[in-house]
Automatic annotation (TrEMBL):
InterPro entries for this protein: Gal_mutarotase_sf_dom, GH-type_carb-bd, Glucodextranase_N
Record GO biological process: carbohydrate metabolic process
Pfam families associated with the record: Glucodextran_N (PF09137)
Gene3D superfamilies to which the protein is assigned, alphabetical: 2.70.98.10
Provenance organism: Acidithiobacillus ferrooxidans
GO molecular function annotation: carbohydrate binding; catalytic activity
Protein name per its UniProtKB record: Glucodextranase N-terminal domain-containing protein
SUPFAM superfamilies for this protein: Galactose mutarotase-like
Amino acid sequence: MEAASKAPSATWRHPVWSTAQKALVGTAPGPARLWFTVGKGIVTEVFYPRIDVPQVRDMGLIIADGKGFWQELKALPEPQLQIDDPVVPLPAITHWRFRQMPTGNELRFLLSAPFTVHRGVDGWQDPTDTLSEDWDLGHVAILPTQTMAAGTTLHFPFYWRDTGQWQGEDFSITLQGENA
C-alpha cells in the first residue's frame, strides 16, 4: 500500500462543515479524490472533488418499515463506532444503548441478521423466545410490552441463528411512567 499523502487544503477562505460532531473522517482507498465524515451514526458529509465544499451535507438517515414505524438515526443515543482495520476507514456503527422506555409501547429490534430474543421479566421470570422475521429492511422482532406495568424490567440476550452463537451480553430495559 502506498504511503498516505496529505489531503489538499481548502482554497476557499470559509470552508463549510456540517454542524454534527465528527466521530470519523475518511477517504476512499487509492487515488480517488473523495472524503467523508461520520457523526451521530450517519454519514454527515461527502466531499468530491474538492475537500472544502461538500457535495452532500447533513444527510439524514431514516429507517422505516412501511407499516408506520420510522426512526431518524441521528436522534438516537450516541452510537458505538468500531473500525476493525486501522488502514481502511470502514466503520461498523451500532445504534443501541438505551435503558428505559415509556409504558404502552411495543419494543422493536431491527438487526442485520436472523436472531432470537430470549427475554425474561423482572429477574428472568416467564422466559420467552421471540424469533425475528425478515422484513426486507432487516430482521425485526417485536416484544409486546404495551400491557406491562411501569417499573417492569425486561432482560434479554440475542441469539444469532446464522452462526448459532449468543451475543455474549445481557441487555435490560425498564418501563417508565406513562406513555406521553
